[in-house]
Amino acid sequence: MRAEADLIIARPEGLYCPPGDFYIDPWRPVERAVITHAHSDHARYGSAHYLAHHDSAPILRRRLGADITLQTLAYGETIEHHGVRLSLHPAGHVLGSAQVRLEHGGRVWVASGDYKLEDDGTCAPFEPVRCDTFITESTFGLPIYRWPTQPELFADINAWWRANADAGRASVLYAYALGKAQRLQFGVDASIGPIVAHGAVEPINAIYRAAGVALPPTHYASDPALDKATLGRALVIAPPSAGRTSWMRRFPNPSDAFASGWMKLRGTRRRRGVDRGFVVSDHADWPGLQSAILATGAERVFVTHGSVAVMVRWLCEQGLQAQGFSTEYGDHDEADDASPRADDATDAPEAAESA
Fold first, then answer.
1. Were both Cys, which of 87, 194, 259, 306 would link to 138 (CB 3.0–4.6 Å)?
2. What is the structure's pLDDT at 337?
3. How far is 117 from 125, CA to CA, in rounded Å?
């Protein structure tokens, strides 16, 4: 299925554009890297030159180094490099996340990075981009994965937080520091109690606020204004790794929960040993993947990571040319704390068959 003149091919360093001589989200250091977003599996240290969306810049500099050589674009802004016209378009994943549109020789390819379709209010919402060939993720590419609506999700989280606050128990909600944490803070009812942000979360909060995202006020756990009684009403947003540290001891009799799309699987919550699991993801669910791919009008589709075989099979059933790209995506911040192990995944085929 691969043509000699493909605009993007797989190389050991990552996804490579031969006519443009650059890579998209490479996992090895290269001369020129176009970055779809700042999660660590897509934005890695060591490349000589980076290009990304404006809103990704402060996060990339924080994570890769303040002195990186970084060029930024606005959404829809076009540049030309070695005859390849390149532009970035909203992916709806996290702040600054982008799909990369390439045009050369009358062909249009789009590499989507990671994306979700539902507008969560904390980043530019996903926009389908018409193309001949589309490169998609498939992190949650099984029929079991269908997300609740945002009103349903936050009604559930708020009810849990409110009940804990009434009982004098801190509500500890584990979430990725970039994207997921800000989405949760933006959506909850901040009138229930104070919101405490872990030290890994608060600097990212500051970047989101500087970009114009209206997050509610947050506190560090060490804030002297928060006595024990006040901490007992708090919602605590922390990365999963914080659950294994002494930092947790300052919260009275906490109730804990994990926010992840993997919470759809019974075994994942059981393994985590948390009181609650909330099904929330910054990736598209099964219907979202289907909708996004078909909206591009692409005749060829490459699937980079996740349930690749299932998604490729479904795409071929729709009459499209589809195959997988072998990549090293899928292990961004603390993902090993949330993603299912082999025993958890036994839940998925049963549900997929019944879906």
1. 306
2. 41
3. 7
